[in-house]
Design goal:
The structure holds two protein chains of two kinds. Chain A is α/β, with parallel strands linked by helices. In chain A, about 50% of the residues lie in helices and about 10% in strands. The chains are: A alpha/beta, B alpha/beta.
Chain lengths: ~400, ~575
């Protein structure tokens, strides 16, 4: 159930000769009313590491959780509430700094960071993480969540295909809220995280998959069925894009020297997971939002997108909601051109990402129509990822020669 | 007694070897300080044009006119707009051009007149059905010819307009103030022929027949290129052939390739016609980095009579017309070449060559290399030889008709008038302004676009193949490369004979391989030149021999937007080694 995606070219992670159990860091704080959830987590952890002494760090007042310690071999550690990110459930710079400090303080060999609603992790999944970190000695273990067809769409549309195409990695959730990290990997991430924190950007996002790929660390994906994810704090898509995509595009910009050299040897096949049938959806409102934007944002889109893409958008803008489908190649090209515009600061970055929102809604409407017709969200996600991989040479070429006189 | 002056050409097929330069008298040079170009000013610039190497001047309308369509609304066919000078000035200009062995084309706008023309003023008052009335096309309602498209769709909502004085509708394919002449009335053609002979007698070498497809109307048709229209054009041609030698008529017919053929007929209608369908496809091919738009349209282009010729152009005084492409192609070209909606007029793009190409010198050179090497006669638009810019904030198509930029001095050296008095302001922004782009500066800079254009024109004129030869497109696998063979055998009886002997070795045969990279990136190409095995390609600009052709694919590496002209030579003498 795990997939190894990259091999370390340097010294592998050190295998601990002492207690192999990782340091567990619960990144989301627990209020007194969450006591039941905390109990459940601790019980699951104890089940996953039977007979082993576990160190579990959580934010908040230790006295609140006093009842949950040592009877099941768990040593509960608390860290200050002020060290908790406010951008939950996303893992931020603050989280990585905290985890790295705790790792060093307690001399652990690896770390398992668990986000909000971690009580939904099944013990077997936690055990799989354990296996990956201790016995396989990987540097990064990333969960593969089993989401509904209508969930995690930003990830399906942008985060996953982009990370896969640029870095040659396969984890489906490059911005997972749970991670298993080797010492060296976490320390490496903490270096970046501390730079953000010292610049008062505590809520800055890091991209562990990209970081591990650039460092040639080993990465493994761990199936995590049943794990439910907390909703983002903000439902404002513009704000979400600004935070998440702004961070991702900046990260891509910083790693240009690496991803431009990564060649995809062959299209990668991902695990096809059949989702439960979803309820009805409303593509009409999303299509309407896109069509309205098509009329009003032409000037901005024309600065960012080449004529072939503009022509493609014109064609789909004329489609009725029931037939609305955006070609995967068009979507990949749009994202690549927005990355380029972000890099070249063609227009204000905030405005740029705002202009992407209606295009994303168009993709969502298209995606939902496609899976309604074909019935397989995984298949369409795979097709989108392949489209990104196939068109990567376009991004590389235009990055190196940004002349906008292109097809 | 009316003395006919001869034209300046001695070769009946002079237009096949010509390099035509389109200019507007109003825009070229002002001699009397009124802010408007004139014929004396144009005379003063003939040396420049001769030095540039152009061999024929096409003048935009210079006749008396209210100038509501930049002179295409003619109020008097046999005189000169006083703002541009006198008839004597024109005669002096014509003589001066002929002395420099340059031919002169003028406009013959026969489809319509200005509503200020005496004919129309008379027609409005004349009785319905009278010969005077019937000089124009009238109707009691506006329902006739309902299927006919509106050409100036941005400004006109109908091809009919109501005239209160006449108490009737009159027909106009263009602006409402340009009523169409009625060629069903024989008197109209008679008057047109009188006007035409007036200028031929002065010695003009030819006419551009403006808006020629629209002469005759028939209900239930598109009124484009009807048989009756062709009959009128043939009558015009016959009148020319009857009384004058070595003159030429050039048809302006914005039609698909197959519908252009009738304008040549059997060589007894027009000598030349603009290849309108090719022009936007050049821009399409460049932007898409794919030769297919060009090769497809050339494949659709019918063979024309041996004495006829295509007129090739990249830009002109009108908008870059997109009528002859598909809807998707039109959308693409508008997305690709008109970032600002103000650049679009009547579905076309009103920008000059250099701004369309983002002022990229390589692209400009590449497109000019196609213009000068494709089968036909090249027509350069004034100012494009120095890469002039445009002003999209001027109305209509005026943004591409600004004063010629001669120097960095006041008013670009075009006029000594108060700048506010110029007929249009000069281009003055930091990139395209006259201080940066002008003839004087480029004459002093050996690497300038002006020198390049002059050198390329000179090179083209050394080889008759470009104007008279056959064309065969090669099909290398790399579609970003456009490669074609031009071949000319002066001893062949016809083009067909030349095709059959494309690798012939007559003493005066010319075989040219042209190769153009349409991409912004370097490209490899493998050409099948096996039938030329044993010949040596000589790169024509530098006279550099390339490796001999074998029966193996001929490999070339082309830098971004690079083009090659190779003369395929049967033998070549090695260049002596240069001592260091």
């Amino acid at each position: 159930m795990t997939t190894s995606t990259s091999q370390s070219e340097t010294e592998p992670a050190k295998i601990s000769t002492q207690n192999d159990a990782p340091l567990i860091v619960l990144t989301a704080p627990f209020a007194s009313e969450d006591e039941v959830n905390l109990e459940q987590i601790l019980a699951n952890l104890a089940h996953a590491w039977p007979g082993q002494s576990l160190r579990v760090a959580t934010a908040g007042d230790a006295t609140v959780h006093a009842a949950s310690t040592s009877s099941n071999g768990i040593n509960l550690i608390t860290y200050p509430q002020s060290c908790v990110s406010t951008a939950a459930p996303l893992l931020t710079a603050t989280d990585f700094v905290t985890a790295a400090d705790l790792l060093r303080e307690h001399d652990a060999q690896s770390c398992l960071m668990l986000g909000a609603d971690a009580h939904t992790f099944a013990p077997e999944v936690l055990a799989a993480f354990s296996n990956a970190l201790s016995q396989q000695a990987v540097d990064l273990a990333v969960p593969c969540y089993y989401l509904g067809a209508h969930d995690g769409l930003v990830n399906s549309a942008i985060l996953y295909p982009l990370t896969r195409a640029l870095y040659g990695t396969s984890p489906r959730f490059p911005l997972a809220t749970d991670l298993g990290l080797s010492t060296r990997n976490l320390q490496r991430l903490a270096v970046s995280a501390r730079r953000f924190v010292s610049a008062n950007q505590e809520d800055a996002l890091l991209w562990p998959v990209a970081e591990a790929a650039a460092a040639h660390f080993s990465i493994v994906e761990v199936d995590a069925p049943g794990r439910t994810l907390a909703q983002p704090a903000t439902q404002d898509l513009n704000a979400l894009f600004s935070h998440v995509l702004g961070s991702l595009f900046s990260d891509i910009e910083a790693r240009a020297a690496f991803w431009q050299r990564v060649r995809i040897a062959k299209p990668q096949t991902a695990i096809v997971v059949q989702s439960a049938p979803e309820s009805a959806y409303d593509a009409a409102s999303m299509v309407a939002a896109f069509q309205l934007a098509y009329a009003n944002l032409q000037e901005i889109w024309a600065i960012v997108l080449p004529p072939t893409s503009l022509l493609g958008l014109k064609r789909i803008a004329q489609l009725p909601p029931s037939d609305f489908v955006m070609p995967d190649s068009l979507w990949a090209r749009i994202i690549y051109d927005f990355i380029l515009a972000f890099h070249m600061r063609t227009i204000n970055r905030g405005h740029l990402l705002g202009a992407l929102t209606p295009l994303y809604l168009a993709w969502v409407a298209s995606h939902l129509n496609v899976i309604a017709q074909q019935g397989s969200p995984s298949a369409h996600r795979e097709a989108v990822a392949v489209a990104f991989e196939s068109d990567k040479s376009y991004l590389v070429a235009r990055w190196r020669w940004p002349d906008r006189f292109n097809p | 007694m009316n003395v006919k002056k001869a034209g300046s050409a001695s070769d009946p097929l002079w237009y096949k070897d010509a390099v035509i330069y389109e200019l507007h008298v109003r825009a070229f040079q002002d001699s009397n300080g009124d802010g408007i170009g004139d014929f004396p000013g144009l005379i003063s610039r003939l040396d420049y044009l001769q030095d540039l190497g152009v061999t024929c001047l096409w003048l935009l309308p210079f006749f008396p006119s209210p100038l509501r369509d930049d002179g295409y609304d003619i109020a008097d066919y046999t005189s000169v707009n006083p703002s541009y000078g006198t008839l004597d000035d024109f005669k002096r200009f014509l003589d001066a051009a002929h002395q420099r062995n340059m031919q002169v084309l003028i406009e013959l706008v026969v489809n319509h007149t200005s509503d200020q023309h005496p004919w129309f003023q008379r027609a409005r008052l004349a009785l319905p059905g009278s010969p005077e009335r019937d000089f124009y096309v009238w109707s009691n309602d506006n329902q006739l010819y309902k299927e006919v498209r509106i050409i100036f769709s941005d400004t006109e909502k109908s091809n009919w307009s109501w005239d209160e004085l006449a108490g009737a509708y009159y027909w106009h394919r263009f602006f409402f103030h340009q009523p169409d002449l009625n060629f069903d009335n024989p008197a109209v053609l008679e008057e047109i022929l009188v006007a035409m002979r007036f200028w031929l007698d002065l010695g003009v070498d030819g006419f551009r027949l403006d808006a020629i497809p629209y002469l005759v109307e028939r209900d239930g048709t598109t009124c484009d290129g009807l048989p009756e229209t062709h009959a009128i054009v043939k009558a015009i041609r016959a009148a020319i052939d009857e009384g004058y030698e070595n003159r030429m008529v050039l048809a302006e017919a914005n039609q698909p390739p197959s519908q252009l053929l009738p304008y040549f007929s059997n060589g007894d209608e027009c000598h030349m016609a603009f290849h309108f369908p090719l022009m936007p496809r050049i821009y399409l091919a460049l932007r898409q980095e794919d030769r297919k738009p060009i090769t497809d349209i050339m494949a659709e282009t019918p063979a024309i009579p041996d004495i006829c010729q295509w007129g090739l152009f990249l830009r002109n005084h009108d908008e870059l017309t997109l009528e002859m492409v598909t809807g998707d192609e039109r959308d693409y070209l508008q997305f690709a070449y008109s970032a600002d909606p103000r650049m679009i007029i009547n579905s076309g793009i009103r920008r000059r060559l250099a701004p369309l190409l983002d002022n990229n010198r390589r692209r400009i050179e590449l497109l000019n290399s196609l213009l000068l090497s494709f089968p036909g006669t090249p027509i350069l638009y004034y100012g494009d030889e120095i890469g002039m810019g445009d002003n999209i904030y001027l109305g209509d198509r005026n943004g591409v008709r600004t004063p010629m930029q001669w120097s960095p001095d006041r008013n670009a050296g075009f006029s000594k008038a108060d700048p506010a008095r110029l007929y249009f302001p000069v281009i003055m922004d930091p990139i395209w302004g006259y201080q940066a782009i002008n003839v004087e500066a480029q004459l002093g800079e050996q690497s300038s676009l002006l020198h390049w254009t002059r050198n390329m024109i000179a090179l083209r004129k050394m080889f008759r193949v470009f104007g008279r030869g056959t064309t065969e497109f090669l099909e290398p696998e790399n579609r970003k490369v456009l490669a074609y063979i031009r071949h000319y055998d002066p001893d062949s009886a016809s083009v067909n004979d030349t095709v059959a002997a494309s690798a012939g070795s007559g003493d005066f045969t010319e075989t040219i391989l042209c190769c153009a990279n349409l991409s912004r990136f370097a490209q490899p190409v493998a050409l099948d030149l096996s039938r030329f095995a044993g010949m040596v390609p000589i790169e024509m600009l530098g006279y550099v021999p390339f490796p001999i052709i074998t029966d193996q694919p001929y490999m070339l590496t082309l830098s971004p937007y690079c083009f090659f002209w190779f003369e395929l030579s049967g033998q070549h003498s090695p260049t002596p080694q240069q001592s260091s």
